[in-house]
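From the shared-data thread, chain only:
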Amino acid sequence: MWSSVARAILAYRPLWLGLIVVLTAIMAYFGTRLQLSYQVARVLPLSDSTQQQYDRFKQRFGADGTLMVVGWQSDRWFDLPVYQGWYDMTDRVGKLPGVKQVLSTTRLYTLDRQDEKWAVSPLIKQRPQTQTDVDSLKKQVLSLPFYEGLLFNPATKATLMAISFDERKLNSRARIELVETIRRYGKEFADKNRVELHYSGLPSIRTEVMKKVSGEMKLFMGLAAGVTGLMVWLLFRSGRVVWLSMTVVAIGVCIAVGTLSLFGYDITLLTGLLPPLLIVIGVPNCVFLVNKYHEELAQHGDKQRALETMIRQIGLSALLANVTTAIGFGVFYFTNSRLLMEFGVVAAISVMAVYAVCLVLVPILLSYLPVPKPTQLQTLQGGRWRSLLSYVDYLVHQRRKLIYGSIAAITLVSTLGLNRIRVEGYVVDDLPKNDPVYTDLRFMEKQFKGALPLEVMIDTGTPNGVVGNAGRALYKIRAMERIMDDYPEFSKPNSLVDAIRFAYQRYRGGEPRYYVLPPAMELKKLVGDSPLTGKQSSLAQSFLDSSRQVTRVSYQMADVGSIRLKAVLGSLRPRLDSLFAGTPYKVSLTGHSLVFLQSNDYLLGNLYESLLLAIGLIALVGMVLFRSIPIILLSKLPCLIPLVVTAGIMGFADIAFKPSTILIFSIAFGLASDGTVYFLTSYRRQLQLGFEPSAAITQAIHETGISLIYTALILAGGFAVFAASSFGGTAALGVLVATTVLMACLTNLVLLPALLLTLKRYRV
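Structure, as tokens:
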């Protein structure tokens, strides 16, 4: 079969070149349409109960992550020039298209009772002109407990501007321009008044993260191409080989971005890694083909024969190796997580496409190029590595106990580290501690207890149940808020109950001591007024659904990490269940923070499933070729031991399992299996040529050793460039996968042949 493939490729070279050029042009064209994703990446499947609960909340009340906050701290916050500047900035931000509402200490709303009816009116009706005006406003503002803890912290002289975005703008490209405009206004205010502004909230965090993703995608494409190209040149000392490799991976990148666009996917934190990943993964295909070509030329000097032998002998092993790599990515499809499915599907397709392009293009281009001179062939064949391979062969034949003991010791130590791995994720922990996004979020947590949304949804079970029944639900909600106050992770609540408390304060003359939920008779008067609970009231629409059966209590919370959040919820939920026991009310905790926690746990569970699935599928691929169960089972050890070592390093280095690092293992297992496939294929071929197992092992070590070493070094160098990422998870992925492939090279080149010799009675 592979002889026919070789003849077909070489006999119709112009046709194949034309097809590749057309394919590349088409995919590059579609790739120009690729856009950044402006949606919150969905990790949980639609069938997950947490995701379903969150979707129900959004259907009733809209997205919860629409609030951007701009905060600062100074004892000059009520000085006339500063207050006027803050007033002007608030006014400018409020006029921006896509901004629904802006609140700050210069734009507050109060409730006034006129003609037995309540009316919502602005507290500050015009720009103050004198310090006396500002002092008067200060007294009024600080007398409103409703806003304390939400917009200002009088104890620390900190204040913030809360900016609510239109959801359509929030999930479009317009968000970036909107956030940048707000930041520009903020810079003007900060420079003029010599204060430091802090920006946070999901719209701001998402915008800054996506800007980094876009920039890093381009950066890593350049770095990956530069480093892998340099590695190829250092190993081969041939500009021709570098040019061949870079041409193949450039076509692969075009196919990847074109596939993303054709499938309707956008660039996310994961799919943004695909182009540089393909550059790194694609080069080893070229290395194995070129090495075999040079080896054949060195033996007989016949170009045509060398090309045909290259395709025939490397084609199958390269196919199997790329299938194992594609499986490592493709198993993410079975997670039912949209984020992982998109990444896995496109990565698997692109890996196989790069293999096909490489198998066709490299022989064709080599056929047009002159044959290297004998002196060049010695360098290209890696003569300086031959003595190392001879030593490996000696170890395999004479010192297998040393090999087994050393590998066992490394594995044992790594297992100790594996047991120390933390399973913990933070919303912004992939960013360095000095990143403005991180430091600004910590400012908000210190001054206002956080900027990440958490929602409590209360379903009373009957229409009008929130405000009916003598306010029974409202008193329960107030009791719930008192329980939530016991947890420092949560900010002050924002709910209908607090709006009613605000109204009662105004009803009793404005004294702060009346900021309480009124007795039943007075409560009935308040909730009957339309500005508070009427169906046409914008205030009511913020907290009630259309039937007034369901209400929400909104919190902002600190980014405390999945471990602490799980502990808090484990303590909180029983208390809420006890509070609402005996009532028909259903209380649901939801919001972005809860979805994030569940996503972290979900991805961890899928790590085990996807890794087991990858092992099973790759074992099936091996069975098709080798048909020896003992060999296939033991050949997984050289692939699994590097994963244990990587996990051990994570434990000792305190690198936690989280969404960004969980991907490492399936990807690394697929790459580690490549070397196993190449070596076993070579070993089987030597046996078929009549060599005894011992001699076949020696031949296989020398035939595949150079390529295994070269590909490991190129992969390690290529993945190491991700260490330059500003995202901690991406940097860890690069370093850990690089470590894994180097360890896999050792196990495939030393441990695997030792195992084969020990089991030489079994034939592959």
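Residues 198 and 443 are 7 Å apart (CA to CA).
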